[in-house]
Amino acid sequence: MTALRPELPALPERMTKLPVSARGYPVPWFVEWIDGEPEFRVMDGRKLVRAIREHLCWVCGQRLGSYLAFTIGPMCAVNRISAEPPSHRECAVFSACACPFLSRPNMRRRHDDSYPEGASKPGGIMLDRNPGVALVWITKHYTIIPQPPNSPLLRIGDAREVLPFARGLPATTAEVHESIVTGLPALIAAAKTDGGGAMKELTRYLKTACALLRIPPIDLEVAYVGR
Predict the structure, then answer these.
(1) What is the pLDDT of residues 135-152, one digit of tens each?
(2) Is omega for the bond preceding 164 within 30 degrees of 0, making it cis?
């Protein structure tokens, strides 16, 4: 059996039955297996359906309780939308601290010829960048936003608690602020395209997110022009 990487944080009890990859990382329940190997960049669509239908943790695959923890980037704290179902609090915190992409700001998504044929991106607006900060957003509910083909988006409920992480440690206010400012242009561009009051709605969401994350207010137009 492959040993876990020694630098990883303590594995939550619920995750101890997960398989371990050749590189020493626990393989989350949602990961697709291709030719006997885990492909961390791809989620198993069947498990996406099961996680929502059966109220299962996205990371360990076990039954969830009343509290739901979404591991999201700061921009999802603004628009309250996630393409991935929730997890247990401890599973989400482990993911935010241990996942190489989530815990290393300089890590980039891998785009090469080995990317599985036919694999598709999740629904919604996907920011193809490393946000530098991962949030564990704890709530008690979410709603489903149907998206064809079979790639639902989830509207995250009001937060009971939000835990920010960067480099495997609690994130600073400055790190959270910078992550949101650098990600805003994509949301602004989408809002300007949508019209119909989308910018006013985004402004309201941003104000709420800044207050919740305890960061200084951000002016949308200034952030857009400044980038």
Answers:
(1) 999 999 999 998 766 678
(2) no
